[in-house]
Amino acid sequence: MSEYQKPDDLKSVPALIALAPVEANAFLAFNHAVERKDGLIPPKYRELISLAVALTTQCAYCLDVHTAQAAKAGATREEVAEAALIAAAVRAGGTLGHALLAQRLFEQNRSKGET
């Protein structure tokens, strides 16, 4: 499945919008709001945040869009690398947090089985 995701798929967005216009337009309005240029967070940092999220959600289309937008907003390769490694560390931290939850749930379930 080497061609499961293709950049040309993004050309199908208008057709998807036409199939569910109410939901799609609500999504697009929200997306435009968070991409605004006049927010307290400058566009470059918004794109680096978006890129970090895209890396953790592993959305190839998001990576395509947000790497291009980050470059356009003035981000450097070094900033993209740092954002990627910050995202990796936070994701790893989430694994540790869930490991603590798993340990507690395991103990709760084990003690239920002993009665």
Can you walk me through this structure?
With 115 residues, the protein is mostly helical. Helices cover 76% and strands 0% of the residues. The protein contains 5 helices and no strands. Helix 1 crosses helix 2, helix 3 packs antiparallel against helix 4 and helix 3 crosses helix 5. The chain starts with 12 loop residues before the first helix and ends with a helix. The mean pLDDT is 92.
Write the element-wise H/E pattern from the N-terminal end onward. Answer: HHHHH
Spans where pLDDT lies below 50 across 5 or more residues: none
In total, the number of strands is: 0
Query: How far apart are the termini?
Result: 49 Å
Number of helices: 5
Q: Give the averaged pLDDT, no decimals.
A: 92
Radius of gyration: 20 Å
User: Sheet bearing the most strands, described?
Assistant: none
3D shape: extended
Please indicate the percent range of residues in DSSP E strands (runs of 2 or more).
under 5%
- Helix residue percentage: over 70%
Q: Structural class per helix/strand content?
A: mainly alpha
